[in-house]
């Protein structure tokens, strides 16, 4: 898991904005004319003519450098996925800091895994939101990233990314579906999602099958990073099973929400099953 350099598209900003529907060809030509006459950048000329906002220009620049994020009007991804919309948000910076921490650990020690289980003790601590945002963060730096919704009890990643969950992890674990269940996320070049799939009556038993190890091993051949969402660890043993298969856990706690006694009990359980905690997140929301 290296640190790739930003990729730059050969498309001009005007072309990107026309393709995205923010400009028509005539408006783009007006901006280009003002750009030449006044010695301005395309963005400054567009803003001066009041044909585009600064947010529109930032969106186009991000696309040009293949650092994808969505315009605020886009409804294909939930607003909870902050990095998909607001890369300057403090939470987005927190996720990038976590990403950097994980990347640096991997660079310094190859025993640090490139698959991470996102863990928390209880419901409502922001575990699924962190999993989604961390996956987007990795994809934005050019890492081929797979987000797996391994919370087959209360799945949410298909809702966050507006995907079908008819077939997913549970179906693959049963041997009734294959990698075709993995969905590419539109607008994000390097992000794919494996949803939880059909709701099974026995998620814990499915996770203990050898097929889970096989799925993760196959994913490691195709993707640079695998991020797994999990059920709350104090309520179900699923999280311990998942974390032991990945070998690396990121623990999420929430201010004024996480119960210290419950957290300590969960930490003991993770230690007993050999989980290597490689990162922590304090959710202030």
From TrEMBL:
<keyword id="KW-0067">ATP-binding</keyword>
<dbReference type="InterPro" id="IPR037257">
    <property type="entry name" value="T2SS_E_N_sf"/>
</dbReference>
<dbReference type="InterPro" id="IPR050445">
    <property type="entry name" value="Bact_polysacc_biosynth/exp"/>
</dbReference>
<keyword id="KW-0547">Nucleotide-binding</keyword>
<dbReference type="InterPro" id="IPR027417">
    <property type="entry name" value="P-loop_NTPase"/>
</dbReference>
<dbReference type="InterPro" id="IPR005702">
    <property type="entry name" value="Wzc-like_C"/>
</dbReference>
<dbReference type="GO" id="GO:0005524">
    <property type="term" value="F:ATP binding"/>
</dbReference>
<protein>
    <recommendedName>
        <fullName>Chain length determinant protein tyrosine kinase EpsG</fullName>
    </recommendedName>
</protein>
<dbReference type="Pfam" id="PF10609">
    <property type="entry name" value="ParA"/>
</dbReference>
<dbReference type="InterPro" id="IPR033756">
    <property type="entry name" value="YlxH/NBP35"/>
</dbReference>
